[in-house]
């Protein structure tokens, strides 16, 4: 019987066309709800730390910051500029760095110079407000000893030096 059935030609055309209504379903509300669930809020402003001891050399500074919240952060934007007492201090060049960590070492700075730093956090939703500004200071340059002015005797020595820094230095340490 199977053999006979398979030999027959079968006409699979439907005699009537199906009648379907065209319906447009509005899913915009569902879409908005789904997007709001998956949206990551923009981060809060980071908190920049004050300068730590031994965080400076004559030409570099290590700057650290943190977050008070559990925000999702992709990277940070660290900005800085030299501090100036002149009236046109706002016109000084600002530098911006993208950083993945909560710290950064900035190099090629001037010795014994104050720099102002601030940082913002970034993620897919946007940029946080900037942190408060913090002032860091690079270490002074080593002084130059004036060899021609050195005097000594059995119990004493006179050593003279001059600073190469524009800003005054608080104190010096002399080692024998």
Automatic annotation (TrEMBL):
Residues 46-142 form the Fibronectin type-III domain. CDD domains: FN3 (cd00063). PANTHER family: E3 UBIQUITIN-PROTEIN LIGASE TRIM36-RELATED, FIBRONECTIN TYPE III AND SPRY DOMAIN-CONTAINING PROTEIN 2. This is FSD2 protein. It comes from Leiothrix lutea.
């Amino acid at each position: 019987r199977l053999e006979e059935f398979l030999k027959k030609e079968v006409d699979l055309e439907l005699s009537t066309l199906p009648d379907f209504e065209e319906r447009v379903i509005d899913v915009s509300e569902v879409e908005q709800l789904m997007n709001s669930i998956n949206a990551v809020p923009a981060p809060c402003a980071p908190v920049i730390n004050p300068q730590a001891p031994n965080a400076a050399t004559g030409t570099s500074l290590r700057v650290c910051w943190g977050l008070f919240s559990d925000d999702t952060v992709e990277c940070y934007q660290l900005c800085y500029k030299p501090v100036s007492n002149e009236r046109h201090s706002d016109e000084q060049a600002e530098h911006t760095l993208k950083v993945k960590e909560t710290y950064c070492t900035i190099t090629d700075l001037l010795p014994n110079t104050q720099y102002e730093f601030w940082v913002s956090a970034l993620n897919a939703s946007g940029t946080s407000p900037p942190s408060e500004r913090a002032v860091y200071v690079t270490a002074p340059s080593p002084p130059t000893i004036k060899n021609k002015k050195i005097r000594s005797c059995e119990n004493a020595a006179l050593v003279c030096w001059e600073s190469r820094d524009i800003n005054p230095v608080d104190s010096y340490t002399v080692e024998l």
